[in-house]
Amino acid sequence: MKTGKILTTIMTFAITLTLSSAASGHRMLADSLIKEDGTVLIEAFFPDGAPVKGAKVEILKPDSSLFKEGQTDMKGRFTFRPERKSGIWKAVVTGTLGHRAKTEFEIAGGQKMEERTTGAEERELSHREPIPWFKVIAGLGFIFGLSSFIMVLKLRTDLKRKQSAPPRDR
Amino acid sequence: MHISDGVLSAPVLIFGYAATAGIAAASIKRISAEDMPRIAVMTSAFFVASLVHVPLGPTSVHLVLSGLVGIILGPAAFVSILVGLILQAFLFQHGGITTIGVNALMMGLPALAAYRLFALRRMFRFEKRDEVFGFLAGFLSVLLGTLILALLLVSTGSEFAGVAKYAALAHLPVMVIEGLITLSVVSFFKKVKPELLEPCHENR
Predict the structure, then answer these.
(1) Of A95, A111, B3, B15, which one is least surrounded by beta carbons within 10 A?
(2) Residue B141 contacts residue B114 (beta carbons within 8 Å)
């Protein structure tokens, strides 16, 4: 009976982990690409590589005025043709559930120039990110360190209180 | 289920920080030294849970575990979730630094609600009451979280019903999975170590 319960528990966890693909968590990233034909592609995606569909995209000119507004398509993409206004343009993507990401790109007279992106360091076909193992270990270390510290503090106060209290039952 | 920086207005963020500070202060007072190992383990579980993605539904969602943390820790759950969220924000860039307050409300309040809901099981006498209430606590804590999320997004001009419906739909797979995880953990503890199902401060 007990073994059955434990097996059920392990099975549930196994099924959960198979259904879910482990990847970096719930934040949104945006990326920009200036194409050969002069149009600009904005891509929004989650760290597991899933596209952000139907998110609001705002394109800001170098002087921060709004140039264009739109929505990402089913692949999380939004394409537009910028003016020939040189400078650093910005794209702000706002998801339906409180997510937001920004990306910047530089246009110099319509020529392809370097793009700068905040949030996404590299562009590949798959946007999937690896699990940040070192950060996980760092976080766990912090949690256990902090709780040990609080525990020692609390135990010390308890001990002091006991020592200073007059002995009973004598 | 983390709101990013720059989405909400300053008054909402300040309100989030103030409410979180108040609840955390009340919650921290009820922690005793013997509870700390348990709190550390549950905080770790919560901290890592958001790395587990659930690739079902319209958007990308992940595990929250607020219901389970609430059941096991009781009133101390709020502090545990706050610490987990701060670490997630700084290490994984989940949500944002300015939104730690509102995010703590969004996941911490459902944890407290789950604890209250799970305590109601004592009013019933059927054999599987722990399992049933475990599932409900896991399921409803995520649902409550999505409702708080929709409520917060109303301040940005979104329409409550629309966002709430979308958020609830997106998180439906997570609700079911969280319910099942909470159910299996509860049934496991019931067999192995039933005193873990009594929240922290009631042990003394």
Answers:
(1) A111
(2) yes
